[in-house]
Amino acid sequence: MICSTGFRTLLRKELLRFWKVGFQTVAAPVVTSALYLLIFSHVLEEHIQVYAAVSYSAFLVPGLAIMSVLQNAFANSSSSLIQSKVTGNIVFVLLAPIGHAELYAAYVLAAVVRGLMVGLALLAIASVWIDLAWAAPHWILVFAVLGAAILGTLGIIAGIWAEKFDELAAFQNFLILPLTFLSGVFYSIHSLPPFWRDLSHYNPVFYMIDGFRYGFLGVSDVSPALSLAVVSGCLLVLAAATLQLLRTGYKLRA
Amino acid sequence: MPAAIEVQSLAKSFGRVRALDAIDLTVDAGEFFGLLGPNGAGKTTLISALAGLVRPDSGTARILGHDVVSDYRQARRLLGVVPQELVFDPFFTVRETLRIQSGYFGLRRNEDWIDALLHHLDLTAKADANMRSLSGGMKRRVLVAQALVHRPPVVVLDEPTAGVDVELRRELWEFIQSLNRDGHTIVLTTHYLEEAQNLCTRIAMLKAGRIVALDSTANLLGRLEAHRLRLKLGAGACLPAGFAGKASREPDGFLSIDLKGVDELAALLTGLREAGAAIEDIELGRPDLERVFVKVMRSA
Ligand SMILES: Nc1ncnc2c1ncn2[C@@H]1O[C@H](COP(=O)(O)OP(=O)(O)OP(=O)(O)O)[C@@H](O)[C@H]1O
Ligand SMILES: [Mg+2]
Questions:
Q1: Domain range for residue A46?
Q2: Cβ contacts (< 8 Å) between B101 and chain A: which residues?
Q3: What are the extents of the domains in chain B?
Q4: Closest partner residue to A92 among B90, B101, B106, by Cβ?
Q5: Is A10 close to B83, i.e. CB distance below 8 A?
Q6: Using CB atoms within 10 A as the burial measure, which of A88, A95, A235, B170 is most buried?
Q7: pLDDT tens track for A75-88
Q8: CA nearest ligand 1 atom 28, residue
Q9: For residues B32 and B30, what is the distance between their CA atoms, to the nearest angstrom?
Q10: What is the DSSP pairing of strand B210-216 with strand B279-284?
Q11: Whole-model pTM?
Q12: Chain A closest CA to B104's CA: distance in Å?
């Protein structure tokens, strides 16, 4: 069922949608993150050391990479849905005999692909001047895919819920951005005051970043197995919630 | 064979607005059916309920026996809908749009039928143009093509000719009629009542979410004063009793009377002859659905 022509067509359409404007959806975020990297690593290299024997740049690159993955995954599904809703062409999907699970899977997979493309491009650029240790590459892939799937799912929820572009921006600014910034992209949460450190443990994005970084450095704040459990659980809950929204037609079918 | 469309006590409210008020309607397979009504009558809401775009509050709808909620996949495969709003995806060309829509319906190789649709809808020259670059009437025709990519046995068109020029409107209807001859059930809404009169064999008139008239086009035209008779009587002559109240005098001196049909016309002429009234001039107009529509809406 999940390999049906309907699903594959929707997935291809979603991929084409961002690829046709790839300059804006892939190249631009890569450049932005590369600039962050260039500046932060230069300014802070001498001042911060998070783990022994790990340079700040080597610590920062995975954080920035996974953050780009997450942000672009969210941007892809949420902007696709809100655009289709505002312009009305969402009816073409709604009229078709495409199941809820297929719809969900197509939007999430497209989001994952865009997220990974941006992340991969950023890593390729960073590795030109920063030495990256690839301690456990399978963890890198696992956390990139799961993290992108979670943010892609959140993007679907936001895209369904928001009726206007500024409502989507609110979702992004008041939920997604704080979650990603308060998760240890630029620092280890062990350097935080106890209150904030404890709070970070309730932030699922922290586990995505920590697990992803473990794949590069072989060290992390919590064990990758724990991170995997938290992240997988999170994805399951969000996927179930999204499927329920699609089943009931919330805000998509009047 | 199950009915093409079967709607049972279908109701839908938007806040305080009762858009559909317990609608019952059956459209048989092979019919050419018209759904008429003033703005806001509930036509689009009814169509949206059939298409699964609107979730009814109560009641059921079936397409060729398949419930549009519980058996939505099969119901949607059998249904092609031309939406009223002029919507399109600006990322794609006309051909890409039709390929994608085919894929949504599970069709991978559909080029022959896509080419035929482009030809019938006079879009061949625009096949590789981006949707954004099309005129309104062209976009409307792409919507028609999109609704037909999967050759649905039941086709519902919500104002398909709004904004389409005269020539293409005629071609569009010829194409739709040929689909109907091939066995497709057609349901359409339009505010051009002449179109409905010429095309539809049966018509439902909606007002405020209720069906206020449902009959064959011929019966509607015969039943309700659809024939307008204009006549000029000789000096001193007057209409027979029973007709005088229905007539109105026009600026050119003619009296105009709306007649139910041929029987009533015969009665009037007999009455005039018996009274010895001289008829100077007489004109009988073609039955006109618009007059029927106005009467139905006033009395409902
Ligand atoms: N999504 C919606 N939200 C709120 N009200 C709605 C919605 N859709 C329709 N309505 C209301 O339901 C009623 C019926 O609308 P509908 O679009 O079905 O009319 P219609 O017969 O198609 O009219 P028209 O000829 O103008 O297309 C109207 O009062 C309309 O305002
Ligand atoms: Mg309408």
A1: 5-248
A2: 92, 96
A3: 5-221, 227-287
A4: B101
A5: no
A6: A95
A7: 999 999 999 999 99
A8: B40
A9: 7
A10: unpaired
A11: 0.88
A12: 4
